[in-house]
Amino acid sequence: MSTPPRFGEQALSEALARIAAKIGADAFDARLLRLANNAVFALPGAGLVIRITLSHRLHDRARKNAELGAWFDEVDARTIRLANTPIPQPIAEGKLLATVWTYVRPHEPQPDGGDLGDALHAYHGLGLPPFPLPAWDPVGDARVRITDAECLGEDDRAYPLDWCERLEPRLRDYVASTPTGLVHADAHAGNAPTVEDHLVPHSHRLRAAAGRRPRPHQPDRRHGHRR
């Protein structure tokens, strides 16, 4: 008999139910929003989003996101808020870690690239928090995910790892030429929902780091692009 995958539908549903029970939340209407290196579930009835880190090698990121979410609340940042839970976050469930965020219902109009630029401009203006953040290392993150991907054959694994080797020196040169700041490593319009006419980056999809980023440009809203 074959061993079921660590992160199959049944295993994730069971883990979600146990995490929800620990915080006294009802997961009857849970729906999967995203499945990558995290499983992100919306619980609209409870007003929560539960983000389960799937790679055991990324637990430090879950801990750092919980710390960062608390800091965002302290400085009243324009982000989705870390939820108040009866136990400290991140929440351990076996070998998994989870963070819990407030749920934001879909709102029209949908944000575009210019809206995302406004949100990120405010986000970058926060500066660095009073605690250390991991260095921005997208190539290193990719290596971790590729190595931990249990369904990849060796040939399929070797190709992206070779690509990482070729990309790393180019990225190193870029990092050396740009200023340091708070980096949102998953910036796209889907991560900037409209909430009461304000654009806020999704914390539950956040991959923050202290890294190099281009000098800020003001968005040109007349033409829907940056100048």
UniProtKB/TrEMBL annotation:
Residues 205-227 are annotated as: Disordered. InterPro entries: Aminoglycoside_PTrfase, Kinase-like_dom_sf. This is Phosphotransferase. It holds the Pfam family APH. Residues 48-191 form the Aminoglycoside phosphotransferase domain. It comes from the Bacteria.
